[in-house]
Structure to design on (181 residues):
């Protein structure tokens, strides 16, 4: 995805959740309709900072989570930049939500919840994919023309993870830093 630095927090917003569980998944058209009233982003260069708040591997051998953190070289914060063109900005968040609903990298995802109140979003997605991977992603976020903030919690289950489960909490901040160069 060309604009990963800008899209990552939007994807995170698309998978946020709070409150009661819905009785059935939301269609991609319902998600896009709910998102249509959100403030459109301005074109420009964006800096996205993703901070890993926590990493837990319940049921894994003692010290496994710390070992994985060590393998990451202590890089719990990642910063990227990207350019959002005028054409991309004029589409608002539709393309990003559509891509999520259609699935990526062999994953099939359903929006269990997607609620918008102004520029605040609460959503939840349940995904399944290769190697019997299942994931639940919950998030709370706020969007704006030049800034997005997101708190995301992911719970992943697969036999490929020692202990079978991994929980990750992330904070994502994306800010417009100027015009594209």
């Amino acid at each position: 995805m060309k604009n990963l630095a800008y899209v990552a927090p939007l994807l995170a917003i698309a998978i946020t959740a709070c409150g009661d569980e819905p009785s059935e998944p939301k269609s991609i058209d319902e998600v896009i309709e709910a998102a249509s009233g959100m403030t459109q982003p301005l074109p420009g260069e964006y800096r996205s900072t993703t901070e890993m708040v926590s990493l837990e591997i319940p049921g894994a051998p003692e010290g496994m989570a710390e070992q994985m953190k060590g393998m990451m070289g202590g890089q719990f914060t990642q910063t990227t930049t990207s350019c959002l063109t005028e054409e991309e900005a004029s589409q608002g968040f539709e393309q990003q939500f559509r891509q999520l609903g259609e699935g990526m990298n062999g994953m099939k995802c359903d929006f269990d919840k997607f609620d918008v109140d102004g520029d605040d979003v609460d959503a939840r997605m349940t995904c399944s994919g290769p190697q019997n991977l299942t994931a639940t992603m919950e998030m709370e976020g706020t969007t704006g023309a030049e800034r997005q903030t997101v708190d995301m919690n992911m719970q992943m289950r697969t036999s490929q993870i020692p202990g079978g489960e991994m929980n990750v909490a992330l904070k994502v901040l994306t800010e417009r830093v100027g015009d594209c160069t």
Observations:
- The helical segments are 4-14, 28-35, 64-71, 86-90, 94-102.
